[in-house]
Amino acid sequence: MYRLLIVDDEPVIVNGLVQLFQENEQFELDVCRAYSAKEAIEIAKKMKLDILVSDIRMPQKNGLQLMDEITYYWPLCRVIFLTGYSEFDYVHEAIRKNVDNYILKTEGIDPIFEAVREATNKLDAENRRRIQEEKAKLHFQIAEPLLRNELVERVLNGEPIEPLLAEPRYQELDFEIAADQDTFFLIGGLEAGENQHSRTLIASVQQAFANYLPAMFACETAVLEGEVPIWLLQPGEELLGRFQTIESAGELHWNGLVAYMRGILELVQNECEELLGTAVSFGISGNLNGRWDKARGQFEMLRKHLRGRVSLGQSMVVVDIEKTNAQEEALYERGRMQQEDMKSFVIDQIHRYILEHLSGDLSLTAIAEEVHFNPSYLSRYYKQATGHNLLEYIQTKRLEGATHLMRETNLKLNEIAARVGFETHSYFTTFFKKKMGVSPQEYRNKQCTL
Questions:
Q1: What sections of 76-157 are H helices per DSSP?
Q2: Among 270, 177, 256, 160, CA closest to 222
Q3: How far is CA 5 from CA 20, 41, 93, 98, 299, in A?
Q4: Which of 66, 84, 188, 313 could form a disulfide with 37 if both were Cys (CB 3.0 to 4.6 A apart)?
Q5: Which burial class, exposed, middle or buried, applies to 83 when counting CB atoms under 10 A from its CB (0-12, 13-18, 19+)?
Q6: What are phi and psi of 218, to 5 degrees?
Q7: Are the C-beta atoms of residues 153 and 222 closer than 8 Å to each other?
Q8: DSSP character for 274?
Q9: pTM
């Protein structure tokens, strides 16, 4: 499933386009919205983006500047610009930047649909090309450098990096990780099967990861205990700067950086499922800078989580160690919970999160982070477990919340719309009338007469 982000500083245009795309059965898209370039950039930091449809004339940052920001994080993102003006300077610059399409708003919705359809076709073609190239490499045996693997293992066992690198046996290695900088590691878990831990399969997963890891990360890879792929990752200074918070005097926003990494892992997981036919799960450590002695304990904890979840029938998991707790860890003790119990537990978690965040972010990415899933897998898991679409459940709960507030409170309709997660009153009115057959005001008037 591709993710489409629609950006315009006019909410009525954004909400109208979102509704039209959601109602068009020709598209299978995860549609997101932003009302400014700043909001769009924040979304890009948290989730993978495939297609950007943006107004080219906006305050603070125009569409061309926004495109540069978005493609910094997601280079494969296709870009379509909308404008109310036919201006040569913008058109010339858009062509120079290799924009997919440039559409006048006066042309209507059909050219926008067509442009998005063309963009998805280009994405499909690029995916097919990449997969064909990777299939040609599947039987190629990637030799794992023995010394590098050994060094990573010793580092994760808590041995200080600097003395290790000074040892004669490692001095010739061009080890990319510095001991005194922000660093974290990932561990991978492959689904059970005959070839789960074969060198070829692990090497293929490592190659898929390398395909999507941006150049602003220094990376060292290894395979621990013959079966656990691991990546030591160190973000570069420019990337770290983009995740520093102004409010706290330049302090690193670690959760923001991890959210960006989750978006990268979503791409890797999707490719491994399609190309290799295997589900890959990941565990993300905390920041090891100044805490290298904690690395082994974090490794063991993440491996326990991944093994426990796989044994309980879950796939494509992404566990952030900073968001785990003792109660959750206890669930993975052998025999503590059966698959059906775990399924019910996860669905309850999803439902509880939705009810607690009706007025907030209920994107697939946000919910998936809560239950440690890949966003695409979350949608399938929920459908298989409940027989219903997750978006339908969210809409049902928003509708129930709205009707309850109309019956039981004197809140204004625009306040009710905000409390159940609608950005604008007009969008709430359109949604409500479509579902209930009457406008919110007509519904409330009818309740008052009963």
A1: 88-96, 109-135, 146-156
A2: 177
A3: 13, 11, 21, 18, 36
A4: 66
A5: buried
A6: -80, 140
A7: yes
A8: I
A9: 0.74
